[in-house]
Amino acid sequence: MLLAGDIGGTKTTLAVFSEEGGPRAPLAKRTFPSKAHAGLGAIVQDFTEGVDLEVTSAAFGVAGPVIERRVEVTNLPWMIDAAELEEMLGLYPVLLLNDLASIANAVPQLRKDELHTLKAGRRDPQGAIAVIAPGTGLGEGFLTWDQDDNRYRPHASEGGHTDFGPLTPRQIQLLRYLWPRFEHVSYEHVCSGIGIPNMYAFFRGGGYAEEPDWLAKELAEVDDPTPVIVNGALNDERPCELCQLTLDAFVSILGAEAGNLALKVMATGGVYLGGGIPPRILPALEQGTFLQSFHSKGRHSDMMERIPVHVILNPDAALLGAASYGLAF
């Protein structure tokens, strides 16, 4: 029995899998609010106490860089140590992999009904694959083809923390607005769940549009403003110009950075958008701004137009990838 987990800044999902059932058939599953717990060990103990299954090993996809079997979670005050978890939980081995490596590991297993295609393109069947995932933070990863084993190999990246590069005069103003507020302005500061409120504050403070009273009331009543802003942008019955400006900028920056990643890894096998945000904003991604920014790469624009682009619809892709990794170990 394998315990697999998707460990993120907002939520932690744990599930138990068997070799017989495989990574798509969890025998037990539960989701926890990450910030309500002191660490992963406490969540695992809570979960396993309520499950009548004898778990022997574990594999966790974690939102943070994994170095020497340890990971400091990027958007949580957690340090996860595989050796400490083995001793605490009595499991062996405990495997840690970056959450984007987990999602990347799931990509070759995804069914057609688990994908929404923004652009079919012309896929190289053995070309590298890029994965970019805006959720609480901005994750990036990729896969390369292993000719010896005839399969794709996932790789982690911390590309979401690279320097934000503005492409328009307005984005330059956005960078100037964020500079005094952050020691380092990364793509995650503008292209993630924690980045959307930053951009909203820029547009509101800059007088680009008025904040409606109803929106101000809704924002005052929630801890996480991102869903409210996104819903305000997509609400056809009561559209909010301020929210629409924010979401339009988000989509444009996401398209540009997805294209940057595709160039860096030569992702002729395709680009996959993961994380919790893309499936929620499909209408905005379909409007053309995303692909326009994705394609706009100067002398390599023609090559970019050939690269397929898909949105991952399976909300448990990271869990599927971690379970697959653990069962195959």
List keywords for this structure.
329 residues; single chain; 22% strand; five-stranded mixed β-sheet; globular; 36% helix
Structural account:
- The strands form 3 sheets. The protein has a 6-stranded mixed sheet with strand order 9-14-13-10-11-12, sandwiched between helices.
- The chain is built from 12 helices and 14 strands.
- By secondary structure, it is an alpha/beta fold.
- A hairpin with a 3-residue loop joins β10 and β11 (138-146).
- α3 (99-106) packs across α12 (317-328), α5 packs across α8 (241-265) and α8 runs parallel beside α10.
- It has helices spanning 40-49, 82-89, 99-106, 169-178, 196-205, 213-220, 226-234, 241-265, 282-286, 289-295, 301-306, 317-328; strands at residues 2-7, 11-17, 28-33, 57-62, 66-67, 70-72, 79-81, 94-98, 115-119, 129-134, 138-146, 151-157, 270-273, 309-312.
Label the structural class. Answer: alpha/beta
Number of strands: 14
Give the DSSP E fraction (strand runs of 2 or more residues): 15-25%
Query: What is the succession of H and E elements?
Result: EEEHEEEEHEHEEEEHHHHHEHHHEH
- Count of discrete alpha- or pi-helical segments spanning 4 or more residues: 12
Q: Whole-number radius of gyration? A: 20 Å
Q: How would a crystallographer describe the biggest sheet? A: 6 strands, mixed
Distance N to C terminus: 13 Å
Helix fraction, binned, reads 25-40%
The mean pLDDT is 96
Strand order of the largest sheet: 9-14-13-10-11-12
- Principal-axes shape call: globular
Contiguous uncertain segments of 5+ residues: none
